[in-house]
């Protein structure tokens, strides 16, 4: 039986070193290949080395783009869709609702396509009037152009159903833990196991790193807060909360791989402050590693935490201060919630189950084509 040829388009590529979509590609593509699919991931030349053509059994196509805030994604997806249309793939998964406009190019190659819409992207603070208008248009296109739509949370599916009368597959992210003992990174940062709070996210306004930093000024004691992250187009915003931050806050930049797992394994508690998006991989991973999670109470975050997190309101930094002070004073509470979140994550977010769902989706798309 000939292997189904599938294309994964719209992310920065793999190996994953950036955000949610890159994590999805990193975890999904090799698992699909192991299940007998012939998988190609389209990658950006400033992210994946041009000479890298294969990774963990997956074909890589590295194409150029314009590395600017507004043109990086559309230019690369445009070129990827043109390239993919000529390859006559059996099915494609396109991520990011803003890329819906390029689905007609894939249709020219008779490629049935599923679109992953993520969260409600037009709500992100980084987008101006033009950006928000593009994402509003993309939502409308998502209701008509793709052969299937994927949401990563029930809250997101409900939104698209109410606003656009659009049904979608709900397929979340997963977690596969690889615990790491304290090592070189923690030694370099002066950290002790169970001796620091951890925040991980891109440093963008809707992820509220500035409010987390503000809240930490009121936290008692000497426990450090490690804020892991960066953002390529937000230097001024990042300076606004890092230059005069509380002395106990550590900013090590973006960290991936073994160092990231080391920090997740040994944190006292994890702070998740996003306010836009569906299910965030970083939150799922933090739960999987047994962290007590302190979660900004948006509907999406509350759904992902599944009742196993302590809640705060990011628009009121004092509410985070209160929760962190409470946790510091009660290690048993942190341990109890950490055990709950770990159990929930491993029961609800399994990468192999996630991959099975995507495999089912891609096979259904391909059979429809045939």
How would you sum up this structure, described in words?
This protein is α/β, with parallel strands linked by helices and 370 residues long. The chain is built from 14 helices and 14 strands. Strands 3-4-2-1-5-6-7-8 form an 8-stranded mixed β-sheet, with helices on both faces. A 6-stranded parallel β-sheet has the order 11-10-9-12-13-14, sandwiched between helices. It is globular and about 60 Å long. It starts with a strand and ends with a helix.
Per DSSP E runs of 2 or more residues, the count of β-strands stands at 14
Mean pLDDT: 93
Rg to the nearest angstrom?
20 Å
Helix/sheet category: alpha/beta
Number of helices: 14
Would you kindly provide a brief summary of this structure?
With 370 residues, this protein is of the alpha/beta class. 43% of the residues lie in helices and 16% in strands.
SSE blueprint and pairings:
Blueprint: E1 5-9, H1 20-34, E2 38-44, E3 54-55, E4 58-63, H2 72-87, E5 91-95, H3 103-108, E6 113-116, H4 129-142, E7 148-151, H5 154-164, E8 169-170, H6 184-189, E9 197-200, H7 209-216, E10 225-228, H8 235-242, E11 249-253, H9 257-266, E12 269-272, H10 281-288, E13 292-296, H11 299-305, E14 310-312, H12 317-329, H13 331-348, H14 351-369
Parallel strand pairs: 1-2, 1-5, 2-4, 5-6, 6-7, 7-8, 9-10, 9-12, 10-11, 12-13, 13-14
Antiparallel strand pairs: 3-4
Helix pairs in contact: 1-14, 7-8, 7-12, 10-13
């Amino acid at each position: 039986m000939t292997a189904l040829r599938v294309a994964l388009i719209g992310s920065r590529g793999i190996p994953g070193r950036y955000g949610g979509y890159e994590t999805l590609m990193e975890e999904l593509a090799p698992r699909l290949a192991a299940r007998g699919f012939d998988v190609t991931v389209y990658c950006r030349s400033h992210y994946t080395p041009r000479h890298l053509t294969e990774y963990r059994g997956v074909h890589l196509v590295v194409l150029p783009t314009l590395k600017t805030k507004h043109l990086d994604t559309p230019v690369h997806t445009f070129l990827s869709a043109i390239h993919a249309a000529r390859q006559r793939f059996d099915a494609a998964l396109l991520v990011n609702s803003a890329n819906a406009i390029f689905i007609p190019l894939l249709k020219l190659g008779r490629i049935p396509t599923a679109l992953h819409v993520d969260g409600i992207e037009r709500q992100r603070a980084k987008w101006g009037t033009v950006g928000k208008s593009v994402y509003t248009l993309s939502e409308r296109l998502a209701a008509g152009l793709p052969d299937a739509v994927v949401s990563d949370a029930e809250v997101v599916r409900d939104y698209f159903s109410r606003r656009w009368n659009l049904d979608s597959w709900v397929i979340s992210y997963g977690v596969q833990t690889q615990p790491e003992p304290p090592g070189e990174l923690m030694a370099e940062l002066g950290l002790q196991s169970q001796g620091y709070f951890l925040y991980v996210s891109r440093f963008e306004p809707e992820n509220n790193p500035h409010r987390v930093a503000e809240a930490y000024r009121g936290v008692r004691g000497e426990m450090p807060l490690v804020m892991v992250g960066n953002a390529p187009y937000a230097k001024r915003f990042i300076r606004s909360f890092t230059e005069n931050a509380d002395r106990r806050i550590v900013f090590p930049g973006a960290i991936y791989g073994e160092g990231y797992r080391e920090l997740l394994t040994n944190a006292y508690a994890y702070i998740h402050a996003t306010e836009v998006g569906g299910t965030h991989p970083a939150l799922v991973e933090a739960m999987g590693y047994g962290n007590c999670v302190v979660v900004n109470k948006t509907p999406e975050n509350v759904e992902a935490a599944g009742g196993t997190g302590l809640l705060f309101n990011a628009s009121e930094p004092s509410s985070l201060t209160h929760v962190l002070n409470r946790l510091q004073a009660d290690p048993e509470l942190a341990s109890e919630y950490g055990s709950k979140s770990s159990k929930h994550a491993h029961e609800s977010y399994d990468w192999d189950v996630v991959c099975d769902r995507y495999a089912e989706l891609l096979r259904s798309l391909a059979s429809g084509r045939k």
